[in-house]
Write a structure and sequence with these properties.
Blueprint lengths: L31 H34 L6 H33 L5 H34 L4 H4 L2 H27 L5 H42 L4 H41 L5 H32 L1 H11 L5
Helix pairs in contact: 1-2, 1-8, 2-3, 2-5, 2-8, 3-5, 3-6, 3-7, 5-6, 6-7, 7-8, 8-9
């Protein structure tokens, strides 16, 4: 397929979507290179969407219906699964629709890309907020292990979930307003995007800071178990808490890995923004959208990590899929 068949330079350009500023997609960006990237990224999204929905539904259903799984940590993991389920049910299908329209070269693109941008921001804030809640729970379990059962109850976990979702909704309201209005200005777009970026950055570094502390604390506890005569009941509880912390650290590691491509690509775009040709800008934009696949795949990786780390959850999954009582 030749470049000529994709050349849209003779077609009048529709006005770019101000919501995406310099990253707005234009019909003239559809070239042979960008076509291949779009097809590959769309295929990956199509393959991932159903497993993402199924696995996160299984996590939520298992925790909701199996009493033996309803501990504090699993309740919070079910909350994270609800954020990941939103990604699979809404964000990924909208992304697929966006990329199919780009592949077909049809427009206008702005409305659906506004919806997609809002969904991505909502999904990101929801995931980071739940990671803050999970990390906070593990911090209390390690820092105040003797008082943990009195400080953290199921009722307070549910209240924390409600407050977390309230924060998520409040944080995304500026993006919703920006997506709805039709006469937005460049300044308003920059302000709203900056607010969203600041919220995500604060949550991200808060999660990293807490988990760095937890990692060092668990190492100290393991050393204490090896060098001191620790009562068996206390040692068992420490090992259980350490396993939960390790699960959170693994989830955080997967989050960092999925976000790194987007970070490096954003840095590349900033460094190469001056003097880029149109085609180079087009390829960069497609690659930047392609890196969002890694972010979306995090919603598929998380339930896989839960199953890997929890034998009980694996057994309940099998029981549910085989329509058996666990």
């Amino acid at each position: 397929m030749s470049n000529a068949s994709f050349n849209m330079s003779l077609v009048p350009e529709k006005s770019p979507c101000l919501y995406h500023l310099s990253m707005a997609w234009k019909e003239s960006y559809l070239t042979e290179d960008t076509f291949i990237l779009l097809v590959v990224s769309t295929a990956i999204s199509l393959i991932a969407v159903l497993p993402t929905i199924l696995l996160n539904c299984l996590v939520i259903f298992a925790v909701a219906t199996r009493h033996q799984l309803q501990n504090n940590c699993n309740l919070l993991l079910a909350g994270l699964a609800s954020a990941d389920l939103f990604t699979g049910l809404v964000a990924q299908p909208v992304r697929i629709a966006v990329e199919i329209r780009r592949i077909l070269g049809v427009g206008p693109f702005c409305t659906i890309e506004k919806v997609y941008g809002t969904c991505i921001n909502l999904s990101t804030i929801a995931s980071l907020t739940h990671l803050v809640l999970i990390s906070g729970d593990r911090y209390i379990a390690i820092k105040h292990s003797l008082r943990y059962d009195g400080l953290v109850t199921k009722q307070r976990i549910l209240i924390g979930e409600l407050l977390g979702w309230a924060f998520i909704i409040l944080a995304i309201i500026p993006e919703l307003v920006l997506a709805i209005i039709k006469d937005e200005t460049k300044f308003s777009v920059q302000v709203v995007h900056a607010v969203t970026t600041i919220i995500c950055t604060i949550c991200f570094y808060l999660v990293i800071g807490i988990n760095v502390y937890l990692f060092s604390a668990t190492r100290r506890q393991k050393k204490r178990i090896r060098t001191q005569q620790v009562p068996q009941a206390e040692a068992k509880k420490i090992k259980k808490d350490n396993k939960a912390v390790n699960t959170v650290v693994i989830i955080l590691g997967a989050l960092i890995i999925t976000y790194l491509p987007g970070f490096f690509n954003a840095t590349f775009l900033i460094l190469r923004s001056a003097g880029d040709s149109g085609q180079l800008t087009a390829v960069n934009i497609v690659v930047s959208w392609f890196t969002l696949i890694f972010i979306l795949l995090g919603s598929l990786v998380n339930p896989i990590i839960y199953c890997w780390r929890s034998r009980k959850l694996r057994r309940v999954f099998v029981a549910i899929l085989l329509f058996r009582q666990s």
